[in-house]
Amino acid sequence: MEWETVIGLEVHVQLATQSKIFSGSSTAFGASPNSQASAIDLALPGTLPVVNEQAMHYAIMFGLAIGADINQRSIFDRKNYFYPDLPKGYQTTQMDEPIVGAGAVEIQLADGSHKTIRIHHAHLEEDAGKSVHDLFPTQSGIDLNRAGTPLIEIVSEPDMRSSEEAVAFAKKLHSIVTSLGISDGDMSQGSMRFDVNVSIRPKGEDKLGTRTETKNLNSFRFMEQAIHKEVERQIDLLEYGEEVLQETRLYNADTGEARSMRSKEEANDYRYFPCPDLLPVEISNETIEAIRARLPELPDARQARFVASYGLSEYDASILGGERDTAEYFESVTQHCGDAKLAANWVSGELSARLNNEELSISHSPVSAEALAGLIKRIKDNTISGKIAKQVFEAMWQGEGDADNVIEAKGLKQVSDTGALEKIVDEVLAQNPAGVAQYKEADDKKRKKLLGGFMGPIMKATKGQANPGMVNQILAKKLNQ
Amino acid sequence: MHQLTIAELLKGLDSKAFSSVELTQHYLDRIKQLDGNYNSYITVTAEQALAQAQAADQARSQGEHALLSGIPIAHKDIFCTSGVKTSCGSKMLDNFIAPYDATVIEKFQQAGAVSLGKTNMDEFAMGSSNESSFYGPVKNPWNTDTVPGGSSGGSAAAVAAQLAPAATGTDTGGSIRQPAALCGITGLKPTYGRVSRFGMIAFASSLDQAGPMTRSAEDAALLMNVMAGLDEKDSTSADKAVPDYCADLNQDLTGMTIGLPKEYFGKGLNAEIEHSVQAAIKEYENLGATVKEISLPHTELAVPCYYIIAPSEASANLSRFDGVRYGYRCEDPEDLYDLYTRSRAEGFGDEVKRRILVGTYALSAGFYDAYYKKAQQIRRLIKNDFVNAFKEVDIIMGPTTPNPAFNLGEKSNDPVTMYLEDIYTLSVNLAGLPGMSIPAGFADNKPTGLQLIGNYFEEARLLNAAHRFQLATDWHQQTPSGL
After folding, report:
1. Which partner from A296, A384, B462, B464 sits 20 to 30 angstroms from A451, CA to CA?
2. Boundaries of domain holding B83
3. What pLDDT, on a 0 to 100 scale, did the predictor assign at position A411?
4. Residues A355, A268 share a domain
């Protein structure tokens, strides 16, 4: 039977506020355990929450970016459950009346096609702390630094039909929140986490199958893997006449396996009710419009601009315009070197390959935008060839200085001296009289190919530093004599 | 000295008739000598009190006059006090030394008041008799066989027994007014949001409100001038200007319309209490007020409504007491589940457990609509009753309690009968209105309370009406024998 996969995502995004959602404690990552946990974060008796206005504004920014309705009145609820990293014994979240209503984002797939993914709503909530199990031999530790970090939880409709679509959707959300500057989007620090709802159904069937929820996915790759495995598992079950059970599954990134965490029957009763310590959040039209007026450029608009003003292909524009850091880097290179096409090739090619290799984000690139522009300038003015440029780039990556330093130090400057080149050409031709004879007998079409055959030895003789355009000219001139 | 009101004590301090150190020492001596009979204090902070008194005397000698400079006050043990045990009347917090001050405590400190200590209370403010305290019941100074009321029973008894000139209390369903009535003192529950809840250990967040418990309306006004006001640390505190509550105390009552809800004078009301309330109303007519019968038709729903909403909120508010970070932890927990269940089973008393269970049930999936949501709808109806009534009248009056103080142990095994003692006070919390209880006579030789209910943020009007009554009568000046 042919199966159709149906995927919905719940995405938790940590907001880049200075302080927590209900207290004044810092949200900075990596501080020593519990050094950023105030009386409020520890849920000491008598403490009360006060909503961080910046967190609300960030949520509104996200809502506006996905064309959602902003609910001018939203309610914080308590979600009750006991866990050591949840100090109050309830999480303050939004249930029935979230701050951001329905919206949508458009994703682009590898084949160039577009698809709209609807977003059911997005709500504000607080993150929990962390339990630390590997620090003490017989006890668990609790670090409440993260407790109270503001999150938006983005809940999609079940609109995705493949892991590719799910990953494209997740990446699009990442590009939106980082472009807005409302999250650092740093997946390695848990700034974005995914819960994936997966079900399958026979192709052509309208009714949704029983879904499972896989939690704790903190990279695009893990998400993709987890979806693949889960779809396979469900197909196996159904094809062997068994049932898919509605359950929550927990993904283990180390083993790449997911296991059942709890079934529907074991599901917690969270006893949601409106938090009496917080008044309903009222947001005026003026506030919403003021935030709208200050919205930074969004990825879709930026990509369109890259096509229009830099003449990039839609594909290049989506690679370079999706993430704010990449876009800013690319625009900076372009500005400094004056050649968008070359800048695009280098950023999306050599640079991004190298960054991927070392798992570095572009903001941590050892080669700055200005330095890369310096390299491109030397290609443009024929100081070096594109091929030599890769060698120079590698040296720059290793910290050996800027393009000019490297070219100078390594003597990589292109040979453009006509006299010197003519001498080398003469030598190469003299060593290969048969080739010359073959050339002279050939027709135009073949000649072009044969001309290339002389190029190799010439480049070898000049250690690749001969100006290829000039060599071509000289060769043609000499052979046609 | 212990017979003087705060207004009189301030004059005495000003005229150097006595110093704050002398005054404070006098109260500390009395507590030491007499509180064995009443058990009104959980913690007495003698050293700290004398240090504060000394500082107040010094400030006064340098011409500084903070509002309550040098006046000793007792605080209900529900307010977090930095460096001092804050138990909330529970074994759960018997070992809890608060690392910070509640806003109310901070405000009293800024006003120069001296803190004598922390008063006994029903565990987590859940109770109407002060019998649910981990520290044992408080005894009513008028008759030590009877309860002082609750949950601010320690504060009420301390003021009635003259072991403090005044005390703070909190009122979620009558916990200031009912013990004030039973102990023959003056108690005010302000409008919800008028006084900060920050640092006040939460029972039911949408109902809890702190207020003064004093010997007179004038003293209550003096304390309100310190306690009231916006607090940025409490999102539910009101951003509304605070009047000088002493300014209009003497205003003439001519033309004031008093509403008497017919539902407050029906079945279940003790005849002597009814008589004392009617006599008090007569007195108000003599003072120029007119009286009008009104109806608060949803009154009888207040008890069931309250006993859904308050336990529901409490069930979540008390989840933080889990034995993980502070407070009571059971011995040698086997695992996390054991740690949770045993710490809570051993740390909480019966009444607290009862309410957590009720609240958890009311919020459960499948029951939420029938209980919590329905209760919220009823709450709106109760509120609307008052809103409509205040279109016709300036102030509502009636009894504070249906009965005078009952005997210790009499109702402790019958929670529903106990809950019915709060029938006249609960709806005021559900509506969020200010309410007051002032002494109005005796029933069976026990004090009775007259309840005054005002419109939102009209504490000044309540204090004015109470003060004029106290100028014309001497019920508030009666004291228990044997002091």
Report:
1. A384
2. 6-248
3. 79
4. no
